[in-house]
Amino acid sequence: MTGPLTKYRAMLAEGGLRPDPAQAMAVEKLESLNNALASYKPAQGEQGWLARFGFGQRSAKPLRWSPGDCESAELKQGLYIYGEVGRGKSMLMDLFFSSAPVEAKQRVHFHEFMRNVHAGVHQWRQDRSRKENDPIPELARGIARNSWLLCFDELQVTDIGDAMILGRLFQELFALGVVVVTTSNRPPDDLYKDGLQRERFLPFITLLKQRLDLLELNSDRDYRLGRKKGIQVYYVPEGGINGGGGGDADLARCFDRLTGGRAPRVEQIHVLGRSWAVPRSADGVAWFGFDELCRSALGPTDYLELATLYHTVIVSGVPALSPANRDAAKRFVTLIDALYEHKVTFICSAEVAPQMLYANGDGSFEFHRTVSRLMEMQSEEYLLRAHLT
Fold this sequence. Notes:
Elements: H1 4-13, H2 21-37, H3 49-52, E1 78-82, H4 89-99, E2 105-109, H5 110-126, H6 136-146, E3 149-153, H7 160-175, E4 179-184, H8 202-211, E5 213-216, H9 223-228, E6 234-235, H10 247-259, E7 265-271, E8 274-282, E9 285-289, H11 290-294, H12 300-309, E10 312-318, H13 326-341, E11 345-350, H14 368-376, H15 380-383
Parallel strand pairs: 1-4, 1-5, 2-3, 3-4, 6-11, 9-10, 10-11
Antiparallel strand pairs: 7-8, 8-9
Helix pairs in contact: 1-4, 2-4, 6-7, 7-8, 12-13
């Protein structure tokens, strides 16, 4: 099978990519790991997971590759690629995952993976026949049995529940020989920064640094900005937001353009011990209906977390606002303030132009600042600013 390096060079030759030294270094590392996987076998001794499922005893074959200047290369079980948004991390993961000579592999967004982990823990605890007190070892064996190559998109930790479970889970996975490749916007030392009981999370950071080769994708070029250049972000459909005027079709084209055509998925945002859903998301873009964001029980902390996690927020069906829907209008103002402060790209379909969104009645004067921000957020100068996480 053609490796990631060959595919990367083909894309350069075809003009689909521009030369980038940081990306070139990353793809060389991924190529080395890809080659090593062809002859790698996870840990499968008497205590290994294959023995537990009746496949007999086989010796483990260490993962030998060239992950950098580490003294014990065979102990490195994957790669942690981090860097600012728009540097090509997802594209490189695409190349690696499609090439990896492994059948038992899985590529998953990290939040989705952790949601499945928590569901597994909950199901385990419902089974009263179990004698063990700790669900993590069995859960890890199940994961390793199905996928011993795990590729994570956007590893980030914001939920204390995730933080408390990660160290023990990954200790078990690495012990079973699972290989991990992950992307993140943050270096390991910045994960779960300022989180509750972070001292209990620190062993996971130490584990990542011990078992994964770390690579910063420090390109000085933000490729996502190129996707945003010249894009229209504010749509007023001729047939109205509920009249089949094509607003959603316009937003869908924006979503495809900014995500590189990736399929949307549901994600969860965790804030202060509770969760709420992002109904459609991919590659740092979140898409909501107006009611989902502004007629739900969400507040400033929720919008700030949204603005931190996503570089683009799309909202369909923004209605004309008035004292009759004052609560929704207040949430909309708070939302725009959070997005503006974090330099998030805001794309929407709306019933009327910004100047007419809250034209009359009590509260219209206070809405003037939001109108000003909505106008500025359409400018190319704003769109090309870096997202502040």
